[in-house]
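Z., the sequence and structure:
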Amino acid sequence: MPDNNVSVTALSFTEYVMSGQRGRINIVSEQRGMYLTDDPKVCGFYNPIRDAMRRAVNSTEPELELKKAVLNANRTGQPRAFEEIADGFLPWLASFKATGVQVEGATYRVGDLTLKVRPHLGLRKKDGSAYAVLVHTKEVPLTREAANVGLRILQHTIADTLPGATPMVLDVRRGKAYQMPVRTNLGKLDVLIAAEAMGYVTHWQLSGLFESVRAV
């Protein structure tokens, strides 16, 4: 990957946006370690429960899919995290009443930052309406500002990921879904995303410089 370009997931970027200054530095350092490592144990903490959610949306017994993920959790912190996610997701899924559909991946470029966008869930209701969903799994609650950033990135890529769908960001532990408010000033939101992308790339590059100096 060229030094002047950084590539992370849309969800990683939204987590950066919702963090304070000290938190942002820590997040970028953690994400550098995750994206640049060859050790699969460093990443993928939430992958088993996300896979379980994808199976659950088309299962007649979604509780069993989540339960299996909880019982198979074997990394430090996973059992409690997966239980909290299941406790938030299952009631939300029951009330939303949708089934799963296939989604595709896309990329969205903002300056020197390339965002990898692949909704964690594609959902369709009986009336035909579809939703492309990014799922926030972390313990820290999702903020409206960060949700709007994720929603706008989904809007920019929806034609490639799930054409005609409505973008949604789900704070799964709290069972709280966000959609873009009608009166959102999208132009200002795009400016915010561009500014935050510059900040992310700067943090990433300076974090790498610090690590190289420390290693000397």
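The helical segments are 10-17, 21-35, 47-56, 62-72, 78-96, 144-161, 186-215. The mean pLDDT is 89.

Let me know what you think.
H.
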